[in-house]
Specification:
Helices cover about 50% and strands about 15% of the residues. By secondary structure, it is α+β, with helices and mostly antiparallel strands. The chain has one domain: 2-Layer Sandwich (Histidine-containing Protein, Chain: A), CATH 3.30.1340. Helix 4 links the parallel strand 2 (about 85-95) and strand 3. The radius of gyration is 16 Å and the shape is globular.
């Protein structure tokens, strides 16, 4: 069961990466300010909505990758939304201790300043 969920997470990560490439267009990169490559926080505030969406997707992928490194967490039922530097976690985990653990993992990702944790515990079917 864990290998299926791990595969699902890997496939979801690949789909997210592919969709990010599909949305990027050659003409869009030229509209970014050229004087701010070293200031990651300033780009999202001063840049176009397209750049903000790209930054949000990148942050979301980083959070998914960080959660995926913890094999004890079933991440197949967790969704991550990023808006600016705020990450929202939705979905279910199998153990109550994982609710806070996933939030701490997300807080540890560079660029995340705040985490809104809406995770709940779902007992496995047929389990006691």
């Amino acid at each position: 069961m864990k290998s299926i969920q791990a595969r699902a997470l890997a496939i979801a990560t690949l789909i997210l990466a592919a969709s990010g490439n599909a949305w990027s267009q050659p003409g869009q990169a030229a509209s970014a300010p050229s004087g701010t490559p070293g200031t990651p926080g300033m780009e999202a505030n001063a840049a176009s909505p397209v750049s903000a969406r790209k930054a949000n997707r990148a942050l979301r992928r980083q959070v998914y990758a960080a959660i995926g490194k913890h094999k004890e967490i079933s991440a197949g039922n967790i969704s991550v939304t990023a808006r600016g530097s705020v990450v929202t976690l939705n979905g279910t985990v199998t153990d109550a201790s994982q609710v806070n653990q996933v939030a701490e993992i997300a807080k540890g990702v560079p660029g995340v300043t705040s985490v809104i944790n809406k995770l709940t515990v779902q007992k496995p079917l047929g389990g006691m």
